[in-house]
């Protein structure tokens, strides 16, 4: 057998269900990799090794009891076990896991263990997964990079001087570096797709309402949804099968099984248009355009049709999105004496949210509903919309904040950047992601290009494919067809 971390998530799932590997072996192997790799990678904020080994032992005991009960055939083929029996995972540190502190990436919050699992952790634990810990996030998940004041920044496994993206950056780094086989992320403005693109992964943002959001902060526009970060479409589909709540009396979604099917010939609209373009003019760099060209080549080679798509976006979008995106931080429970511990960006947007009237928020939400209808109507001329995943290569650590960083993490005095400059840089870096959340549509990021010319060389760059409502299976089928 290959090294455990070299197995795909699907292969690891099969080895655990068959008994070829024990849950304790899998957990122990990944915990050793975390111990060796995390000090320079910064993917984990908290490692729960003792609890993970206890949970793995319980999974092994369950496997043994089923076998002793005379159900050996069902145990060997996995039908008598939960879907993710013994599979190691990690949760981004915005998700509550019972008995573990949820930091939200903030020095302004008191450290209190969560009393119960959040919806996302409950879903995956209920499917048999074993949690190894909590991964690095930006403060309250607000940014496209995973750097904060409480722990070292999450770094890109392909270039440690570069960011792994955000807000699911710690989880993406952990998957890309083989510290976990796959991981759930949450995406309210690109927070699965951005780090997937930065770290060379498949990242799926499901459509609104399909899976638990995985967040515990306010989200009045319904932007946030949880989705998988994985090394392949099949691995992402396996995790999505566990994330989607079952409906009594109906068949399971079977996303993993559906990845084996060939998608029909698709009409795909290619666009560089962005609703941020007028407010923050940007020019995609050469690597972004190379990724787009490679995506077009792969799609056309597979038999699909690509045509230019001119999408018109309302110029009022940036203000409305920012109002909705930052509303939750305005109502977050933070003691007044601890607000000085917030990062400049969080503190600035919290103050603005608190000064905004309820009518102002209502107007923004009303505009976004109309924006959703208008944008979906335009997208409907094609089966899928194709864009670059990012406009720039993964950014250097500290680039957004202006922080001069040597090692460890940033104390307050070293956050040099201006909040508005920080936000502008993020919108120019990832200008094609947030409108998909507003529309509530599924989208997938695929790592089609490497700046070094071959897979694994240089920096990864991806494409984004945006589907119609309910097209998660189609996006995964297409990803598998393209070799991911």
Give the CATH level 1 class. Answer: Alpha Beta
Number of domains: 1
Instruction: Say which CATH homologous superfamily is assigned.
Output: Amidase signature (AS) domain
State the helix count.
Answer: 17
- The coarse silhouette is globular
How do the SSEs run, as a string of H and E? HHEHHEHEEEHEHEEHHEHEHHHHEHHEEH
Structural class: alpha+beta
Distance between termini? 22 Å
Main sheet characteristics: 8 strands, mixed
| CATH architecture designation | Alpha-Beta Complex
Instruction: Give helix % range.
Output: 25-40%
- Main β-sheet, spatial strand arrangement: 6-8-7-12-13-11-9-10
Cα-based radius of gyration, to the nearest Å = 21 Å
Which stretches are poorly predicted, pLDDT < 50 over at least 5 residues?
A: none
Classify the fold: give the CATH topology: Amidase signature (AS) enzymes
| Beta-strand residue percentage | 5-15%
Average pLDDT across residues? Answer: 93
Count of individual beta strands:
13
Describe the structure.
By secondary structure, the protein is α+β, with helices and mostly antiparallel strands. The protein has one domain (134-481): Amidase signature (AS) enzymes (Alpha-Beta Complex), CATH 3.90.1300.10. It contains 17 helices and 13 strands. The protein has helices spanning 9-18, 23-41, 49-68, 72-77, 119-126, 169-176, 193-199, 233-243, 255-258, 286-301, 317-325, 327-331, 344-355, 358-379, 419-429, 434-439, 472-481, and strands at 44-47, 88-92, 130-135, 155-156, 159-163, 183-187, 202-205, 225-230, 267-270, 305-308, 384-388, 443-450, 460-466. The strands form three sheets. Strands 6-8-7-12-13-11-9-10 form an eight-stranded mixed beta sheet, with helices on both faces. A three-stranded mixed beta sheet has the order 1-3-2, sandwiched between helices. Strands 4-5 form a two-stranded antiparallel ribbon. Strand 2 (88-92), helix 5 (119-126) and strand 3 form a beta-alpha-beta unit. The longest helix has 22 residues, at 358-379. It is globular. The two termini are 22 Å apart. The model has no long low-confidence stretch (mean pLDDT 93).
């Amino acid at each position: 057998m290959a090294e455990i971390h070299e197995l795909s998530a699907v292969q690891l799932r099969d080895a655990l269900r068959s008994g070829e590997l024990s849950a304790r072996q899998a957990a122990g192997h990944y915990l050793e990799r975390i111990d060796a790799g995390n000090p320079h990678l910064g993917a984990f904020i908290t490692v729960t090794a003792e609890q993970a080994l206890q949970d793995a032992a319980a999974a092994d005991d369950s496997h043994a009891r089923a076998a002793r009960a005379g159900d050996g055939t069902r145990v060997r083929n996995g039908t008598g076990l939960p879907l993710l029996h013994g599979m190691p995972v990690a949760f981004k540190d915005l998700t509550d896991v019972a008995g573990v502190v949820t930091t939200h990436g903030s020095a302004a919050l008191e450290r209190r263990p969560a009393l119960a699992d959040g919806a996302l952790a409950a879903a995956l634990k209920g499917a048999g997964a074993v949690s190894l810990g909590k991964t690095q996030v930006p403060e309250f998940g607000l940014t496209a990079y995973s750097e904060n004041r409480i722990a070292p920044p999450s770094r890109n496994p392909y270039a440690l001087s570069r960011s792994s993206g955000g807000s699911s950056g710690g989880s993406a780094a952990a998957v890309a570096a083989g510290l976990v086989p796959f991981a759930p992320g949450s995406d309210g403005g690109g927070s699965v797709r951005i780090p997937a693109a930065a770290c060379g992964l498949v990242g799926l943002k499901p459509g609104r309402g399909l899976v638990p959001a995985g967040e515990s902060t306010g989200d009045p526009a319904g932007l946030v949804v949880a989705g998988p970060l994985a090394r392949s479409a099949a691995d992402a589909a396996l995790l999505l099968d566990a994330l989607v709540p079952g409906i009594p009396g109906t068949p399971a979604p079977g996303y993993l099984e559906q990845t084996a099917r060939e998608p029909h010939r698709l009409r795909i609209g290619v666009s560089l248009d962005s609703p941020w373009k007028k407010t923050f003019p940007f020019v995609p760099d050469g690597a972004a355009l190379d990724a787009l060209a490679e995506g077009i080549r792969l799609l056309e080679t597979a038999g699909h049709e690509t045509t230019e798509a001119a999408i018109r976006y309302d110029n009022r979008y940036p203000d409305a999105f920012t109002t909705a995106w930052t509303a939750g931080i305005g109502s977050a429970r933070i003691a007044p004496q601890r607000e000085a511990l917030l990062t400049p960006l969080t503190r600035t947007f919290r103050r603005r949210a608190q000064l905004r009237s309820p009518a102002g928020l209502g107007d923004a939400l009303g505009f976004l509903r109309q924006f959703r209808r208008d944008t979906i109507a335009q997208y409907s001329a094609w089966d899928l919309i194709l864009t670059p995943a990012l406009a720039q290569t993964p950014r250097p650590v500290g680039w957004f904040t202006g922080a001069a960083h040597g090692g460890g993490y940033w104390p307050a005095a070293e956050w040099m950047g201006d909040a508005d400059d920080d936000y502008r840089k993020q919108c120019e870096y990832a200008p094609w992601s947030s409108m998909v959340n507003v529309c509530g549509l599924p989208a997938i990021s695929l790592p089609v290009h490497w700046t070094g010319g071959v897979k694994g060389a240089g920096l990864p760059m991806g494409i984004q494919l945006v589907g119609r409502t309910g097209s998660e299976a189609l996006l995964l089928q297409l990803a598998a067809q393209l070799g991911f």
